[in-house]
């Protein structure tokens, strides 16, 4: 299996490439920075896809190569060539030195990018989407991780691993529902947090507007630094559960900066349009391009100055995330249903989520909620959270100590559980700090960057301590009350 673009003859032989560094890791692929020796040692990126991990998806891998070879647009990353190397498929592509927007925000913009930067990036993506849809293709995996940027601030949409053409007969009947008047896909593809509701309810079929939903989620991801509900761990079966990974801070706490951020009406309106539950009401890329949010967009230079300037290289950033992951000592697979500690957490279903335009967030919806939802998306109870009577700060506030129907034993159990989670996190941070401090081989500049990371962690730790203190107080209070009853 191999393919090559016509304009340049990149060799289809792995010996012609020299791997320089590892720069990224996806679910089933590793991305390398490499040089192509016969092409004047030009720098390339090689995505080595593990064909075994992609399981039966050889078709989609072929499709990616085929789709990619036919596309031609300034905002779409076109691979030079692809070929099999043992059990991996190497996709050789231009090296985008800024890496993905996801890796950029994770490293340097934890609270998200500024609106002018977001508008500038997203306008380019809309342009790519408009072209792609015009050619009869859906991308199906729009997210910041698939938006790459080069040293000149040029933004490109990448990763056609799950893209599909509605003209492609190779997908066959399993992929389409032909009963509707327009051709619609029915196979589940993409990454859970960014997936449109109709993609999850695959029996109803979906089409181009699923990309618009993911585009809206990507806008929130760029604005907040992470996609909505990303504190809920995804699972392959789309059953999202919180067991041991539930973090008090994830659900209830925002950072000071993110709390104080105000988004423009135009931005909120644009995202609201994309996140309409009814796909037919979501605007096309062309219509979105005319939205006032994109009116005064800047050029690539603006991104160079405001996003890329001072950013560690993509390889440095990748190494740092690897180091930080070392801090996740003993973290268990989120899909692991049989918890080794035997901890049983009661779970409570949520029926979907609402886009809260005012708060600029997707919010979980509980089946018992009486509130009228404006844009509710139902997931048929596929997401569950601990069932302990605590919903949110607002709902919890007046009831915690005053009776009023609160199940105190359950609250106590939940708070003790949270306390344990905070203890674990504290332990992990301490171990990480000790590990980094003890490593004398770290180079000076990296050390400086790591110190900043540590400082951030220290502040987080302080915040966690404060929270822990208030949780402990609450536990004591409830214990007392419990004993008195
Ligand atoms: N052409 C490229 N040039 C530079 N960096 C790249 C390139 N392609 C990918 N990367 C880097 O590698 C990382 C991983 O990319 P990859 O496409 O494997 O994973 P992902 O899209 O984040 O995850 P997944 O597709 O598995 O959900 C990206 O986040 C990006 O930083």
UniProtKB/TrEMBL annotation:
UniProt protein name: Protein kinase domain-containing protein
| Recorded coiled-coil stretches | 444-474
Q: Which organism is it from?
A: Buddleja alternifolia
Checking SUPFAM superfamilies in the record gives:
Protein kinase-like (PK-like)
Binding residues for ATP: 47
Q: Which Gene3D superfamilies match?
A: Phosphorylase Kinase, domain 1, Transferase(Phosphotransferase) domain 1
This protein's record includes keyword ATP-binding: yes
Q: Which UniProt keywords apply?
A: ATP-binding, Coiled coil, Nucleotide-binding
Any one GO molecular-function label of the UniProt entry: protein serine/threonine kinase activator activity
* Protein family per UniProt: Belongs to the protein kinase superfamily. STE Ser/Thr protein kinase family. STE20 subfamily.
Q: Which InterPro entries match?
A: Kinase-like_dom_sf (IPR011009), Prot_kinase_dom (IPR000719), Protein_kinase_ATP_BS (IPR017441), STRAD_A/B-like (IPR047173)
Residues in Protein kinase domain copies: 17-294
Q: Which PANTHER family match?
A: SERINE/THREONINE-PROTEIN KINASE FRAY2, SERINE_THREONINE-PROTEIN KINASE BLUS1
